[in-house]
């Protein structure tokens, strides 16, 4: 087998591929042999030039089809060309000045984005800090411990709070020791 699709033989690019190997397709050779030979030097030059141009422009035959004219009528093409001419018929100095103004505005916006991001960061920080409640614990208070590990496995019957503990010692920086 010569390929993944279990094909045992076939013709690819004018060559017959089979179990015995790669051979030139005889049918194609016969067609080439029956072509008329050029009778003059000019005919030979034209034949070579035609084949070279087909190698250089492989899609030339497709572009010569009448489908393009059917799809895009000449009136549409003329209208598009007129629109493009009107659109691009402008004063270069005026357009250059206009483009400079646009670039300056863009640079100003870019500079403002950094300032705006700092303002946004400060506002969100204030909002989050306002939601944090300061808790004051005294020695002997009974507290519940919140288990953040159960967050992943939270079900209806599982609690995130672990049994009541007693505050044993309060450290000055806010940490407490439970017993």
**Uncertain residue ranges:** none
Q: Fraction of residues in helices?
A: 40-55%
Distance from N terminus to C terminus (CA atoms, Å) equals 78 Å
SS summary, helix count: 6
| Structural class computed from helices and strand pairing | alpha+beta
What is the tally of beta strands? 6
Query: What would you call the quaternary organization?
Result: single chain
Averaged pLDDT: 75
As a percent range, the share of strand residues is: 15-25%
Order of helices and strands: EEEHHHHHHEEE
Widest beta sheet: strand line-up: 1-2-3
Largest sheet: 3 strands, antiparallel
Radius of gyration: 41 Å
Shape: elongated
If you had to describe this structure to a student in words, what would you say it looks like?
Keywords: Nucleotidyltransferase, RNA-directed DNA polymerase, Transferase. It comes from Tanacetum cinerariifolium (Dalmatian daisy). This is Reverse transcriptase domain-containing protein. It is a single chain. With 179 residues, the chain is an alpha+beta fold. Among the domains are: 99-132; 142-178, no CATH class. It has helices at residues 26-34, 41-56, 60-63, 67-71, 74-88, 92-131, and strands at residues 10-12, 15-18, 21-24, 142-146, 161-170, 176-178. The strands form 2 sheets. It has a 3-stranded antiparallel β-sheet with strand order 1-2-3. Strands 4-5-6 form a 3-stranded antiparallel β-sheet, with no helix packed on it. It is elongated and about 115 Å long.
What layout of secondary structure does this protein have?
Layout: E1 10-12, E2 15-18, E3 21-24, H1 26-34, H2 41-56, H3 60-63, H4 67-71, H5 74-88, H6 92-131, E4 142-146, E5 161-170, E6 176-178
Antiparallel strand pairs: 1-2, 2-3, 4-5, 5-6
GO molecular function, one term: RNA-directed DNA polymerase activity
Protein name: Reverse transcriptase domain-containing protein
Keywords: Nucleotidyltransferase, RNA-directed DNA polymerase, Transferase
């Amino acid at each position: 087998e010569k390929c993944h699709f279990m094909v045992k033989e076939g013709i690819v690019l004018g060559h017959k591929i089979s179990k015995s190997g790669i051979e030139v397709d005889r049918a194609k050779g016969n067609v080439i042999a029956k072509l008329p030979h050029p009778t003059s030097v000019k005919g030979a030059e034209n034949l070579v030039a035609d084949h070279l141009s087909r190698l250089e422009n492989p899609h030339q035959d497709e572009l010569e089809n009448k489908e393009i004219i059917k799809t895009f009528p000449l009136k549409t093409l003329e209208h598009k060309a007129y629109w493009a001419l009107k659109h691009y018929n402008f004063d270069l100095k005026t357009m250059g000045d206009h483009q400079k103004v646009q670039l300056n505005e863009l640079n100003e916006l870019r500079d403002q984005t950094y300032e705006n991001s700092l303002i946004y960061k400060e506002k969100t920080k204030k909002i989050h800090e306002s939601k944090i409640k300061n808790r004051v614990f005294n020695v002997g208070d009974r507290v519940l411990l919140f288990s953040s590990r159960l967050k992943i496995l939270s079900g209806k019957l599982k609690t995130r709070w672990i049994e009541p503990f007693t505050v044993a010692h309060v450290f000055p920086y806010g940490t407490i020791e439970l017993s």
